[in-house]
């Protein structure tokens, strides 16, 4: 009789312990799910970037270059407003491109080649084939000042897309882009550089 009572007590204890474990496991699981869903709902979506800018300065000691390239997002397009002052290049035309890397070191050479996420051939903007970084040529006046404006839906200001101009560099060349020579347009040396941020 005593053995039956001990056996019955042990079975009860075992059953109670099992229920406690199952109950704890369930409660932990639901707590985790509830924590996880509250964390997800508290993360706000990232704000879209509507403006970026590159301050352009000279890469050569003998050539003063001052300029800005402003990028503004509006209605699904990005508008570029480029202003350059290069007194030494007065009455001449200079090529301007967006280059791959945001690093103006080594006299602008650290930017590497043109920004070309689509793998296209170099050419004039809007032609059958061109790099997304093929901005074009800018005519400078008698004081070495020049401007260029363009608007496109091929660029974005989102840092997570292949079409984003952010984290690249603007390069000003001392020659004219012929829109033909691959992959650079034979635009000459790099005399100005600015990081797009």
TrEMBL record:
Pfam families, per the entry: Sod_Cu (PF00080)
Record-stated family: Belongs to the Cu-Zn superoxide dismutase family.
Keywords for the protein's UniProt record, in alphabetical order: Copper, Metal-binding, Oxidoreductase, Signal, Zinc
SUPFAM superfamilies referenced in this protein's UniProt entry, alphabetically: Cu,Zn superoxide dismutase-like (SSF49329)
UniProt superkingdom: Bacteria
Cofactor list: Zn(2+); Cu cation
Cofactor binding summary note: Binds 1 zinc ion per subunit.
Enzyme Commission (EC) number: 1.15.1.1
Organism: Parafilimonas terrae
Bias kind Low complexity: ranges: 30-42
InterPro entries assigned to the protein according to its UniProt record, in alphabetical order: SOD-like_Cu/Zn_dom_sf (IPR036423), SOD_Cu/Zn_/chaperone (IPR024134), SOD_Cu/Zn_BS (IPR018152), SOD_Cu_Zn_dom (IPR001424)
Residue ranges of domain Superoxide dismutase copper/zinc binding in the record: 65-196
Function of the protein: Destroys radicals which are normally produced within the cells and which are toxic to biological systems.
Reactions listed under catalytic activity: 2 superoxide + 2 H(+) = H2O2 + O2
Name of this protein: Superoxide dismutase [Cu-Zn]
GO molecular function: copper ion binding; superoxide dismutase activity
Annotated signal sequence range: 1-22
UniProt-annotated stretches for the region Disordered: 30-49
